[in-house]
Amino acid sequence: MSTTLATAVAALDDRYPPAWAEEWDRVGLVVGDPSASVTRVLCVVDAVPETVAEALSAGADLIVAHHPLLMRGVSSVATTTYKGRIVHDLVKNDVALFTAHTNADVASPGVSDALAGRLGLVDLRPLVPSGHDVAVGTGRIGRLPVPRPLSALTAQAAAVLPPTAWGVRAAGDPDRVIETVAVCGGAGDSFLAAAAAAGVDAYLTADLRHHPASEAVAGGGPALLDAAHWATERPWLDDLATYLRATLEVDVLVSDLDTDPWTLHATSARFSPSKEPLP
Asked: Which residues are noted in the entry as a divalent metal cation-binding (predicted)?
C-alpha cells in the first residue's frame, strides 16, 4: 500500500483546514517532497528526537505531529542546533513532517472530542464556537451519563488518560457532584472564563496556573482538573490514525512515547486531600 505525500497532505488539509488555524500558528507540510511515495505514517504529539527515532525504526516515511516543530522563524537548521538536528535527520532519511495544531484543536472531530470521548461525555458542543459551523470550536462541553463526585471523576480521568508522571490533580470540593464537564486538549488556561460562563460543574485541561485557577475556584466557578499536556492530546492520535487508515492506502502507526517534559512525581508525605491538619 502506498500513496503520494501530496495526496496525504490533501486528505489532512480536508480534515483539518489550514484556514482554521490561529494566525500565530504554523501548520501544514514542514519537510518533504509532495511527489514522494508514502507507505507508512507515524502519528505523534511532538516531533522530538525520540519520536523521529521511532519513525526511522518503524520505517515510516511521514510523521504527522500535533505540535509545530518550527513555530517561530529560525536562522539556521545546522546540526549544531536542536531543531536543526531533527530537520537533518528527517531530510537525510526521506521522512516527511506534517503538522496539524490549532486547526485540529477546533475541528470536529478534533483534539477535544477525543479527550471528551475518554471520559465518556455525551451531547458534545464547542466550549468556544469558532463560527465555521456549529460543531467547530475550541474545547468541548458534554454530560456524564452518570453524575459522580469530583474525587471519582479525578480518579476516572487518571485511569482513562495515558499514564504520565504528572497524573491528574483537581481543585474543588472532592464531594462536589459533577454532571456537566468542559474539556480542552492542551493548554486551556485562557478558557477558564468560558468554562465558568458555560455553567459547567468541572473543567478538564492542562497547564493551569496557580493564580487563575485559585481565583476561578474561589469565584464559584467549576471544579478544575489539570492533567499533563501530552496526555490530553494523545487520545486524538487514535482518531487521526483511524481517519488516515480509512482515507489513504497506507499503514498507520500511533506513538505512545510519553513526550511530556515532567518525568518524576512525588506526593508530599503529609498531604491531606481534605486540607485538615494532620496529627
From this structure: 66-67, 105, 229, 233
